[in-house]
């Protein structure tokens, strides 16, 4: 039962507010507007497409929203251009030389096709390469699955270390954990079953950010909601969590932490 998505404004989704959604066109920029009982207008861009989402107070008219977005149009265009140029944000072509993010760094992909049926990905730190072995003629979908498997294996190796470190410090125990292909949140915590899930996408992010997400989810075992007590516990265990949260958001925006 995690509300973690509230922390990741860049790629958050609000499913409960679909009824108040509309689409606005502001000087050729398509903007998804969701009206909510809030005081101020919030603007966010979703990678990799750079889709613009706005949360607006209920009483604001379309014209008023357009008006308040006017001064930010240049910023939106610049951000969208940056997303479009980010090599890892684009649809992957799975060819050698392409950049792929791994644990917060950018690596060149080297695709090695062979007659063997075995597939693997090996990280070469010195050459900053991810060497992918695949059968001859493997499709892009196949290569994407091989990479996902590598990401998953990375996280499955790292998570037990995080749990071993943090559970005794925090005095909690996750009864089960796993890795899930979640695109809209970094992690979830089922407080009743004491089950923690981390997003597969975290394998692209810096290790300290993965740790931050794990601590966040474990804090939910002590405090279910994002209350002041929750944040006090975060500060107690991980005093620099706001910086890590920012770093994670920034990394997600770039899909790279470089
Ligand atoms: Zn949370």
Explain what you see.
The protein is an alpha/beta fold. It has two domains: 4-85, no CATH class; 99-254, Metalloproteases ("zincins"), catalytic domain (Zincin-like). Helix content is 34%, strand content 26%. The protein is built from six helices and eleven strands. The chain has helices at residues 62-69, 73-85, 140-170, 207-219, 228-237, 241-254, and strands at 21-26, 29-36, 42-46, 51-57, 99-102, 105-114, 120-124, 129-135, 176-180, 187-190, 195-199. The strands form three sheets. The protein has a four-stranded mixed β-sheet with strand order 1-2-4-3, covered by helices on one side. Strands 5-6-8-7 form a four-stranded mixed β-sheet, covered by helices on one side. A three-stranded mixed β-sheet has the order 9-11-10, covered by helices on one side. Strand 1 and strand 2 form a beta hairpin. Helix 4 packs across helix 6. The two termini are 32 Å apart. Bound molecules: zinc ion (ZN). Zinc ion is lined by residues 2-4, 216, 220, 226.
